[in-house]
Amino acid sequence: MACITVRGDYTDMRIISISMETENQTTVPMCACIGYFDGMHVGHQALIRRTIELAEKHGCESALITFDPDPWVTVRGIQNVKHITTLRQRINMAVSFGIQNVIILKFSKEMSMLEPSEFTSRILGHLRLRAIVCGFDFRYGKNGAGSAETLRQALTCETSVIEAVSDSQGKISSTRIEQALVKGDIRAVNRMLGYRYQLEGTVMHGRHKGTGLGFPTANLSYAQEYLLPKSGVYAGYVTFDSKTYPAMINIGHNPTLNFQDALSVEAHILNYKGDLYGKRITISFSEYIREEKDFRNRTNLIMQLEQDTRNVQRVLKNDEF
To answer: Is the same domain home to 96 and 152?
Structure first.
């Protein structure tokens, strides 16, 4: 079994990789939750809280079991699947919520074809589980034949099933969050996530058009699997070197001075001067300000950016997170 300890963004933690070739069993007793966990939203957080409670009850470590790649890629062959969070983000968030072990199931076609009973014996059987936590709608095994109930019947450990976490609009889910992202409804996204929506990446060189306008930006090189929010200007924050700064964020094609086919993600950090090239940053979103526009000239663009800055400052002054 591949088992390594790494230092993540938060603390020491253990990552365990399980594949169809895995032979040995883990030596540490665990209580684990299982799922894909895209977004790590408030519904997922309910599973994590229950897992930590059970780990304390059983006097063992907590764990989160997830899949890589996305089961949609393996089962249906869908390419370029977009996600709210990357695997790196899910790992770091799990640790920040108190999880001690992250177990990554290397989800191959062969693993996807296992009958539910084979999945529990051949895959989950490698873990010394004292308890397992899943959502009420969790499915596993060939053709999704396995359910929370079959999981309960197959395992000798305690099984805890978490019911839907809902708001006034219904069940909170990754699908609903994705739909809100596409509309630019960041406030709804953040409520369902329980934290500000984030993009991570490295600052790369752009064409310095923002600098020439008096609004220098950090141009983000981001993972292509991200589902980006609606194009436009946002109020938010940029975090690097353990410090967080207010920022005006733009997602779009830069139609006025620097049109490009691929969507760019740029952040103008308010009242900051410094070189961020090559630095890894996190951009967090608070509110949608306006749609992207094609301005007639530089003067009109600068006037709009000045107004955008005032709007961003107003929003962040009353930010609810």
So the answer is: yes
Q: What is the pLDDT of residues 117-131, one digit of tens each?
A: 999 999 999 899 999
User: Is 172 inside any structural domain?
Assistant: no
What SS3 state is found at 303? helix
Q: 204 and 159, same structural domain?
A: no
Residues 75 and 115 both lie in one domain: yes
Q: pTM, whole model, 2 decimals?
A: 0.91
Residues 201 and 158 in one domain: no
CATH number, domain of 106, equals 3.40.50.620
Question: Which residues of the chain are modeled with pLDDT < 70?
Answer: 1-12, 206-213, 254-261
